[in-house]
């Protein structure tokens, strides 16, 4: 069984990790009953990443920090560290448009897995505010007239809740964990 650590205490990220672990547990018994522990790593978390590479690096940094902080606890269980990060990237072929993207990184300290949760184009008005220095979460909370950054998030507001923030992270995480639940293809 794995001990699963998530490099965030944000509800959407923790819910995504729980959903991914529960889905994987239906096909891989090593994940059944795996505890998911949220760990606050905001001290190393990047500000709003503005490139695809910066988003992935943020997820990777969260996962590596968890391994660095948890390995050596003397526990026989394998630690599985998960980093989830969202940010903006330019829309390929259109330097004036940006998309919101999510990345996941997973590691046991030796193997790594990566997955992306898709992308959604941002309205120009939201992009302008972020480029002017406003945090995307603040802009989305203002548009929604409610604090939604940790729940439905920008994904929920932009898709009228057909896809929420946790959904985008869950798909990224299912992809990132593939080397762990489907090792025959990755070893």
Secondary structure: helix percent: 40-55%
Strand order of the largest sheet: 2-1-3-4-5
Structural class: alpha/beta
Q: What is the terminal separation in angstroms? A: 19 Å
Give a quick account of the main beta sheet: strands, pairing sense, barrel closure.
5 strands, mixed
Task: Note the beta-strand portion.
Answer: 15-25%
In DSSP terms (H or I, runs of 4 or more residues), the helix count works out at: 8
Number of strands: 5
Principal-axis shape: globular
User: Helix-strand pattern, N to C?
Assistant: EHEHEEEHHHHHH
Oligomer: single chain
Radius of gyration: 16 Å
Average pLDDT rating: 93
| Low-confidence spans | none
Offer a concise description of the structure.
By secondary structure, the chain is α/β, with parallel strands linked by helices.
Describe this entry's structure for a reader.
The chain has 187 residues and is an alpha/beta fold. Helix content is 41%, strand content 25%. The protein is built from 8 helices and 5 strands, in the order βαβαβββαααααα. It has a 5-stranded mixed beta sheet with strand order 2-1-3-4-5. α1 links the parallel β1 and β2. α1 crosses α6. The chain is globular.
Topology:
Layout: E1 2-6, H1 11-25, E2 36-38, H2 52-70, E3 78-91, E4 94-107, E5 112-121, H3 124-131, H4 136-144, H5 153-158, H6 165-176, H7 178-181, H8 183-186
Parallel strand pairs: 1-2, 1-3
Antiparallel strand pairs: 3-4, 4-5
Helix pairs in contact: 1-6
């Amino acid at each position: 069984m794995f001990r699963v650590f998530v490099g965030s205490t944000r509800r959407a990220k923790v819910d995504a990790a729980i959903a991914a672990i529960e889905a994987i547990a239906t096909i891989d018994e090593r994940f059944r009953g795996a505890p998911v522990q949220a760990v606050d790593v905001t001290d190393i978390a990047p500000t709003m990443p503005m490139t695809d590479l910066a988003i992935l690096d943020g997820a990777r940094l969260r996962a590596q920090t968890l391994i660095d902080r948890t390995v050596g606890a003397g526990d026989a269980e394998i630690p599985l560290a998960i980093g989830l990060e969202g940010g903006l990237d330019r829309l390929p072929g259109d330097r004036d448009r940006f998309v919101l993207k999510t990345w996941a990184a997973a590691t046991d300290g030796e193997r790594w897995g990566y997955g992306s949760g898709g992308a959604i184009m941002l309205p120009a008005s939201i992009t302008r505010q972020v480029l002017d220095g406003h945090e995307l979460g603040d802009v989305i909370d203002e548009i929604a007239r409610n604090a939604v950054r940790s729940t439905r998030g920008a994904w929920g507001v932009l898709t009228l809740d057909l896809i929420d923030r946790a959904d985008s992270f869950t798909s990224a995480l299912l992809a990132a964990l593939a080397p762990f639940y489907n090792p025959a293809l990755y070893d």
